[in-house]
Design brief:
single chain; 817 residues; alpha+beta; 5-stranded mixed β-sheet; 30 strands; 20% strand; binds zinc ion
Length: 817
């Protein structure tokens, strides 16, 4: 074997990016042009003990158009490669910049086989006591085994796993053979359909297996839960998986395109879910709800299940060509998740739910200086994780709704069918899709797509009233003079009733006569509009006192969200905003709007909260007519109450554990929050709460997190220092929680010193962590800091790093106050 620092071989010239670390777009294109008919046969030996290595073998078959050098990806140290044979001969390969390079002389035109014996990299094996799971999206297959890591080289995978006899093992396909010997089990799985590397997955460990029959289909679930109330929820989960599959089959006209459907519910899982074919992973907290779930929690679970199921067609069956288009799979998953959820919750107002979920979340990122376009350039796969965020998950479905509105539902559905059948088991770009849709529409979809998809930001839409004329002007806060074509309703309210006008804002300005007798002009009353809507002064004054009187629920939600955007834009003061929210809270009867209010209360409460205000919230937490609202208000008090009286009350509730709605998780959070505010009771709160937890996975989590709420500053500092090491961030949700408690509002001044080192490690966090973690890390570190000192720390950090990677800097700018 030969290790070289820099390779310049054969046809490769000076600034060739093919040997860059990661997977450059140049390397991917070159491989796509020259490599075909790809097959991986993989074998992993998984020891029972977490600290013993996983040994592996890979046999990679592929066809070459011509004899040439072959560049594989393996993001691990060279020492982990033990042997390489190419076409039956021992190979003197090179290893550099995360690539294993097979010289041209070993290869031939046509069929080739590379056989590698290696020790698997640990980063994406997620090894825990008693179980492990792979999570390889977006470019992490190359951390586990040598491969061609790029979504458009789809391959057949055949997997063999050797595991302890008592363990279960799950992968993308059914088990073909199973051999038991001396306490070990050798499992061979059937070959997969063509899959991108990021969709290959396996899980092994002590897991319970439960089966469900739906027509001729068997769905299996694997989990580690011991609480019976939680396990019983599998019935609902199975039904929703089955309904989602049926809905997608019916809509697309394409039967489920993979061999089987299994789901694995895992504690400490980084995301809500991940759509591996035949082995979809889910986070246990999103799936197993507490005894008294709120409507939001139930809807979120269904949306998650529907989202991952929709991915089987959008993402798995047809996959983006490169990760710059990763949003195309997320937009469809969320767009169809909303439609599937609608059929499963007929009693819910889904127009309202959609703006509450997608629009609000999209605005929350789009209003920040760190926002990005839906489509972003990606020069190297190693930055693919930074492409993800609320813009692709939530702004993209808002855009998609507008696209369907322009095209018409039937033409859209036809286009989708054509797209899926044209690119079945293959790859497609957004432009491929738009070309299909454009042919079915009279409008210029490419132009529409250009501003909504390729440009960042949102319009400011200002209403002004002059005598009997209303002028609506949209402006581009980024000063590019962009116009976002869109339609929305405006309602004129007068003494003699209401008049609704549909505004088609296709240019910068829209002018209309104000109907006689109009008192106020309500913008965006159907919630379809997207941006910061600034009403006329008179209307704003009226809304702050009366928004809650609006009868139509979608309109009420939309107006509430509009006021919130005005508050975030500092056009409304804290105390005025607080009053407006409280006025709405006491009379609200819709659980989704009430939950939106509860979510908004935290901000102004921290700024202008008083004992009297907390008292009012206590009253509502007991007597509000919506049960889930009472629970959400309790949670609001648990994380925000400061008055001594409130704290004593919370402590009493925690001690007695007789609250009708709070769950074990709530009491655990309460113990953390109270320990922070009542440091003299830290020992008792933590000691007793630990003794109440039954599930061993949750005790491990508790032991990890509880040190972060210690009143001892030496302990705090040592927890912080430990989080700077990747090995202590292995279970990301735990690390995130600990970091957030270290930077708790009650510690704002002390914790300023964590900001610089917390930012210094961010690039490392991105390198070693999964997709959503860089932003979650930045958020946990910064969300509670509002001081000038904190702001200076962030500015000083970027001054000291003028060439900081833009995508990562944006993650910070999205969360900084
Ligand atoms: Zn997704």
């Amino acid at each position: 074997m030969m290790v070289v620092a820099l390779m310049l071989a054969g046809c490769m010239q000076g600034d060739d990016r093919r040997y860059d670390e990661g997977v450059s777009v140049e390397l991917a294109q070159w491989r796509k042009e020259t490599i075909g008919d790809l097959r991986y046969a993989l074998r992993f030996d998984i020891p029972e003990r977490r600290d013993e290595a996983v040994e592996g073998e890979a046999s990679i078959g592929f066809a070459l158009k011509r004899r040439q050098e072959v560049v594989l990806d393996f993001r691990e140290s060279a020492e982990r490669i033990h042997q390489v044979r190419v076409n039956g001969r021992a190979c003197d390969y090179a290893f550099a910049n995360e690539h294993l390079i097979v010289p041209r002389r070993y290869t031939r035109r046509g069929e080739n086989r590379v056989e590698i014996i290696f020790t698997a990299g640990e980063q994406s094996l997620n090894r825990n006591e008693e179980y492990l799971y792979t999570l390889l999206v977006p470019d992490r297959a190359r951390t586990v085994f040598p491969c061609f890591e790029q979504p458009n080289l789809k391959a057949e995978f055949t997997l063999q796993l050797e595991v302890p006899e008592a363990w279960e093992a799950v992968s993308n396909t059914e088990v073909e053979t199973l051999l038991v010997m001396e306490g070990r089990k050798l499992i061979t799985f059937k070959p997969t359909e063509p899959l991108s590397t990021y969709l290959f997955s396996f899980v092994a460990g002590r897991l319970q297996r439960v089966e469900y029959q739906d027509g001729g289909r068997t769905i299996a679930a694997y989990h580690r839960e011991v609480d019976e109330q939680k396990v019983a929820q599998l019935d609902v989960i199975f039904e929703q998986v089955a309904s989602s599959l049926r809905w997608m089959e019916e809509y697309t006209g394409i039967p489920y395109p993979f061999a089987k459907y299994s789901l694995i519910i895992l504690p400490g899982f980084q995301y809500g879910g991940m759509e591996h074919t035949g082995a979809t992973l889910y986070n246990d907290r999103s799936m197993f709800l507490s005894e008294h779930p709120t409507l939001d929690e139930e809807l979120a679970r269904t949306e998650l299940i529907a989202h991952e199921t929709a991915h089987m067609w959008f993402g798995d069956y047809v996959t983006m060509d490169w990760f710059d288009d990763v949003w195309t799979k997320e937009v469809f998953a969320n767009y169809f998740a909303a439609r599937i959820t609608e059929t499963l919750f007929p009693e819910v107002n889904h127009e309202l739910n959609s703006i509450k979920n997608y629009t609000a979340s999209a605005l929350s990122e789009d209003r920040t200086p760190g926002t990005n376009a839906i489509r972003q350039d990606l020069d190297n796969l190693r930055h693919a994780g930074l492409i993800y965020g609320s813009i692709i998950y939530n702004k993209a479905p808002v855009m998609m709704d507008k696209l369907v509105e322009i095209m018409g539902e039937e033409a859209f559905r036809e286009g989708i069918h054509e797209y899926l059948t044209t690119f079945a088991y293959g790859n497609a770009t957004w432009d491929d899709l738009i070309a299909i849709l454009d042919a079915k529409s009279e409008d210029d979809l490419a132009a529409f797509s250009d501003v909504w998809v390729n440009q960042k930001g949102m319009p400011h839409i200002t209403f002004t009233e002059e005598e009997d004329t209303l002028t609506i002007v949209q402006s581009d806060p980024w000063e590019r003079s962009l116009v976002w074509p869109q339609s929305f309703d405006v309602t004129f309210v007068g003494n003699d009733g209401e008049r609704v006008v549909e505004v088609n804002l296709s240019s910068e300005r829209f002018v209309t006569a104000i109907p006689e007798g109009s008192e106020v002009i309500l913008p965006n009353t159907d919630g379809r509009g997207y941006g910061l809507f600034v009403p006329t002064e008179k209307t704003m004054g009226w809304l702050l006192g009366h928004w809650q009187e609006t009868e139509n629920e979608t309109t009420r939600q939309s107006l509430l969200m509009m006021l919130y955007e005005n508050y975030k834009a500092e056009l409304i003061e804290d105390s005025v905003w607080m009053d407006a929210l409280m006025r709405g809270l006491v009379v609200e009867r819709n659980p989704l709007i009430a939950s939106t209010i509860c979510g908004y209360l935290g901000g102004p409460l921290r700024e202008v909260g008083t004992e009297e205000l907390e008292e009012l919230l206590w009253q509502q937490a007991q007597r509000h007519s919506i049960a889930s609202c009472r629970l959400q208000l309790m949670r609001l008090l648990i994380s925000n109450a400061k008055a001594p009286r409130s704290l004593e009350r919370l402590y009493g509730i925690w001690e007695q554990q007789t609250h009708p709605q709070l769950s074990e998780r709530d009491y655990t959070n309460m113990a953390y929050e109270l320990a922070l505010r009542m440091p003299q009771r830290y020992e008792q709160l933590i000691g007793e709460q630990r003794s109440r937890i039954g599930n061993p996975d949750r005790i491990r989590e508790f032991d990890f997190v509880c040190r972060a709420v210690s009143p001892d500053t030496l302990t705090m500092d040592s927890v912080f220092v430990s989080l700077l090491k990747a090995e202590n961030r292995r279970v990301e949700p735990w690390a995130e929680k600990a970091l957030a408690y270290l930077n708790h509002p009650s510690r704002e001044a002390y914790a300023v010193k964590y900001i610089r080192p917390g930012l210094e490690v961010l690039q490392e966090v991105q390198r070693t962590g999964d997709i959503f973690f860089p932003k979650k890390w930045a958020n946990a570190l910064l969300k509670n800091h509002r001081s000038d000192e904190a702001r200076h720390e962030v500015e000083a950090f970027f001054d000291a790093h003028p060439d900081y990677p833009v995508l990562l800097k944006n993650k910070v700018l999205q969360v900084v106050n």
